[in-house]
């Protein structure tokens, strides 16, 4: 029987107000503008993958980082992690020196992994820290793309600044 592998969108970025921008671009039939915003998300996801590959320090982390894939949709970008059973242990760590039962008997922990790497905004060893480090760059990249789309669309008025776009609306990880 084939073993089922698990994948998950480990990191994703969301921008408040982007859905409304996409709707207005669609209403204006601005296909080029929609493509520019999607391309900015693609660059952001690629940047997180590249930084993750540079950050990976152990053999297991480098193996996991080699399988990372950027994931892009019209309104979001993410990084897909998974493919091997140990990928999530390489990213998040595992319990150390706690007895667990296996076919071979009782063993201590999952000591092949680093200790558990925090929770919430402190989670992760490779992908999540890379995404956190990328947030400022990402805000500038997406802000510039949205400004360019805004300026290129007819009937929009003056372009909003990056601060107007991302003032409090940038939701990171």
Any key phrases for this structure?
single chain; 173 residues; alpha+beta; four-stranded antiparallel beta sheet; two-stranded antiparallel sheet; disordered N terminus
Please describe what this structure looks like:
The protein is an alpha+beta fold. The protein has a domain at 8-81 and 126-171. Helices cover 46% and strands 17% of the residues. The protein has six helices and six strands, in the order βαααββαββααβ. It has helices at residues 18-27, 31-55, 59-66, 87-92, 127-152, 162-166; strands spanning 7-15, 69-72, 77-82, 99-102, 105-108, 170-171. The strands form two sheets. Strands 2-3-1-6 form a four-stranded antiparallel β-sheet, with helices on one face. The protein has a two-stranded antiparallel ribbon with strand order 4-5. Strand 4 (99-102) and strand 5 form a beta hairpin. Helix 2 (31-55) packs antiparallel against helix 5. The chain is elongated. Mean pLDDT is 77; it is low at 1-6 and 165-173.
């Amino acid at each position: 029987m084939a073993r089922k592998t698990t994948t998950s969108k480990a990191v994703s970025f969301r921008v408040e107000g982007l859905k409304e921008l996409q709707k207005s671009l669609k209403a204006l039939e601005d296909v080029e503008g929609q493509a520019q915003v999607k391309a900015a998300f693609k660059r952001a996801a690629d940047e997180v993958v590249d930084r993750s590959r540079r950050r990976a320090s152990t053999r297991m982390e480098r193996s996991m980082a080699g399988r990372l894939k950027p994931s892009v949709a019209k309104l979001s970008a993410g990084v897909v992690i998974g493919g091997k059973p140990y990928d999530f242990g390489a990213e998040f760590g595992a319990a150390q020196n706690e007895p667990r039962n296996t076919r071979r008997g009782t063993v201590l922990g999952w000591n092949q992994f680093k200790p558990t790497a925090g929770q919430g905004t402190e989670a992760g060893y490779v992908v999540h820290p890379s995404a956190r480090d990328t947030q400022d760059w990402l805000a500038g990249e997406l802000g510039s793309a949205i400004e360019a789309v805004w300026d290129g669309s007819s009937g929009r008025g003056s372009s909003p600044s990056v601060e107007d776009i991302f003032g409090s609306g940038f939701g990171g990880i």
